[in-house]
Amino acid sequence: MKIYIAGHRGMVGSAILRQLEARRDAGEDLDLITRTHAELDLTDQAAVRAFMAAERPDVVILAAAKVGGIHANNTYPAEFIHANLMIAANVIHAAHEAGVERLLQLGSSCIYPRDAAQPMAEDALLTGPLEPTNEPYAIAKIAGIKLCESYNRQYGRDYRSVMPTNLYGPGDNFHPENSHVLPALIRRFHEATQTGAERVTIWGTGRPRREFLHVDDMAEASLFVLDLDRATYEANTEPMLSHINVGTGEDISILELARMVAEVTGFTGRIETDPTKPDGTPRKLMDVSRLTAMGWRARIGLREGVEATYRWYLENAARVRA
Ligand SMILES: NC(=O)C1=CN([C@@H]2O[C@H](COP(=O)(O)OP(=O)(O)OC[C@H]3O[C@@H](n4cnc5c(N)ncnc54)[C@H](OP(=O)(O)O)[C@@H]3O)[C@@H](O)[C@H]2O)C=CC1
Ligand SMILES: C[C@H]1O[C@H](OP(=O)(O)OP(=O)(O)OC[C@H]2O[C@@H](n3cnc4c(=O)[nH]c(N)nc43)[C@H](O)[C@@H]2O)[C@@H](O)[C@@H](O)C1=O
C-alpha cells in the first residue's frame, strides 16, 4: 500500500506519519511517500499533477494547508482562501487523474455557521452565515468537502473528509500572534513565569467556548476513518454530506483554559482579558455521535494533553515555529 501524506512536517501530518511508521515497523506493508513544501508546492498545479502521475499512490492523506489562529485568519484572508483552495483543488483533482481510489482530507470545525446549534452536527453545513474572522479559510475548507463529494458522485471515487475541532500538541505553532489559542497561551504563560510578570493578558473577553483535541487522538481518528470499509463509511455519512466530525464532545471557556495553562506552567499572577481583540465564534462544540457510533472516541484528556504539550514545548523550545 503506497500512501502519500501531504503536510507530513505539520502538526497533524507528522502525528499521522508517526502512527503509520509504527504500523510499518510492526510489519504492515506500507510505502510512505512524503515531500516537503520546498520540494513540492501544492499550490503549483503542474507540479502536483506531475508528482501524482509519477508516484501513483494508492491512498492520499491531505493534511497540508495554510493554517493559523484567529489573528492570522483575520489579517491574511487572501492567502488563507487562495492557498487552501489551490491545495485542495490541485491535490484532489490530480489524485483523481492519477487513479487514486481513496483519499482523506482534513477540514475544520469553522465550516459550520457562526451561530449553528450546539453541538454542531454534520448536517449544519451551509445552513447559515459563517464567522467573519475566518470565512475565507472556511469557504476553502467547504470547497474541499464539495470537491470530494463531486468526484465521488461523478466518478465513483472514495474521497473522505474529517472535520477536526481545535487541535493542539507536539509540533504545534507557538508564534505569539499567528498561532491558535492553546500554544499561544502556553508560550505567554511560560514566558511570564520566566520574567516574573505579575499579569498575563488573553485576547477577547475570555467567554468564547472551544473544544480541544490532542493531535495524537486526531491522527488516530484520521486513520480510523481512512481504514473503514467503504460500505461502513457510506452508511455513516450521507451522499451529499460526506464529512465526519472529530472531537471530544466537551468544551471549555477561554478563561477556564487560561487558568488551566497558568496552573500547568506555574504562573500565579493575574489573568486579564483584552476585549479589543476579537472573540470569534461564541461557541464551537462538535456533535461527534457519528464517529462514536462507529467505535472511535478521544482518549487524551485536556489537562493531561496540556501537561504533555507543555513538556514538549520545554524540551523543544528552540525549534518551535516562531
Ligand atoms: N491546528 C488546528 O487547530 C486545526 C487544524 N485543522 C486542519 O488540519 C490540517 C493540518 O493542520 P496543522 O497540522 O495544524 O497545520 P500545520 O501548519 O502544522 O501544517 C501544515 C503543513 O502543510 C504544509 N503546507 C502548507 N502550504 C503548503 C504548500 N503550498 N505546499 C506544500 N505544503 C504546504 C506546511 O508546510 P510549511 O510549514 O513548510 O508551509 C505544513 O507542513 C489542515 O488542513 C488544517 O486546516 C483543522 C482544525 C484545527
Ligand atoms: C481551529 C480554528 O482556529 C481559528 O479559530 P478560533 O477557534 O477562533 O481560534 P483561536 O485558537 O485563534 O482562538 C480561540 C479563542 O481564543 C481567544 N484567544 C485568547 N488569547 C489568545 C491568543 O493569545 N491567541 C489566540 N490565537 N487566540 C486567543 C481568541 O480571541 C478566540 O476567542 C481559525 O483559524 C479557524 O479557521 C479554525 O479552524
Automatic annotation (TrEMBL):
The active site is formed by 137 (proton donor/acceptor)
- EC numbers listed for it are 1.1.1.271
Q: In which pathway does it act?
A: Nucleotide-sugar biosynthesis; GDP-L-fucose biosynthesis via de novo pathway; GDP-L-fucose from GDP-alpha-D-mannose: step 2/2
GO molecular function list: GDP-L-fucose synthase activity; isomerase activity; NADP+ binding
Superkingdom as given in the UniProt entry: Bacteria
Keywords from the UniProt entry = Isomerase, Multifunctional enzyme, NADP, Oxidoreductase
- The residues that hold substrate are 188, 203, 210, 279
Give all residue intervals belonging to the NAD-dependent epimerase/dehydratase domain: 3-230
The protein's enzyme class: oxidoreductase
Q: For the site Important for catalytic activity, which positions are given?
A: 108, 110
Catalytic activity, per the record? GDP-beta-L-fucose + NADP(+) = GDP-4-dehydro-alpha-D-rhamnose + NADPH + H(+)
Any Gene Ontology biological process: 'de novo' GDP-L-fucose biosynthetic process
CDD domains membership: GDP_FS_SDR_e (cd05239)
Q: Which InterPro entries would you find in this protein's record? A: Epimerase_deHydtase, GDP_fucose/colitose_synth, NAD(P)-bd_dom_sf
Q: Which residue ranges run through the membrane? A: none
Asked whether the keyword NAD is assigned, the reply is: no
A Pfam family this chain is assigned to: Epimerase
Residues that bind NADP(+):
7-13, 106-109, 141, 164-167, 180
Name the Gene3D superfamilies on file: NAD(P)-binding Rossmann-like Domain, UDP-galactose 4-epimerase, domain 1
**Function, in words:** Catalyzes the two-step NADP-dependent conversion of GDP-4-dehydro-6-deoxy-D-mannose to GDP-fucose, involving an epimerase and a reductase reaction.
UniProt record similarity statement:
Belongs to the NAD(P)-dependent epimerase/dehydratase family. Fucose synthase subfamily.
| Name assigned to this protein | GDP-L-fucose synthase
